[in-house]
Amino acid sequence: MKLISSTTSPFSRKVRVLLIEKGFPDIEIEMLNPWEDPEELVAVNPFSRVPALVLNNGVVFYDSQLIVEYIENTMQGPKFIPSSGAARWLVLQGQALGDNLIEVGIRPLLERRRPEGKQIKEKIIRDEIVLARGIGAAAKLVRVMEPPLSIGHIAIACALGFIDFRFPHLKWRDHHPRLSAWYQDMRLRPSMQATVPFEPDKKA
Questions:
Q1: Is 164 in contact with 176 (CB distance < 8 Å)?
Q2: Is the per-residue pLDDT at 204 higher than 50?
Q3: Whole-angstrom distance, CA of residue 108 vs CA of residue 128
Q4: Which of 18, 128, 180, 185 is the least buried, fewest Cβ under 10 Å from its Cβ?
């Protein structure tokens, strides 16, 4: 089994953290840049997006939520999604919130990559306002998501890591000290330390 990932994708990071926490740190990881449409990735995912999970029999799963479900339902180890009840829906809401933070954050990131004269500043400002609202929602949700560690916790932590990586100017910690304290504990977990995002030519 092989996971096609990238060094910067927060969706891939979520899956990688889950695999480590579940007890499978040695699964083959292939790092590719999806923006370059690499042949190896396009051959298994026509959308050239990561993560993509390639099974030993050649079956491929893409979309991080689907990959999470596959890992949870087929691999041994602790469970990170409760099987039923209110706890299950709370955890899945946490994953959805984290994923939405990432999706909203990608929009201004891509807008800023356009030539200076073609950027729509109003879109960037609006998306960053929405991102700030989402961080506020994460702060509230984290307070009610109790242990043990779940995919909801992982997704939100990876989203906050993405925001730190791409939007340091937002300084979200100044507005959410309790969320900051929670994230500080999360980011020190070995699984999070092993998956810190970096640009390939800027690795320490």
A1: no
A2: no
A3: 7
A4: 185
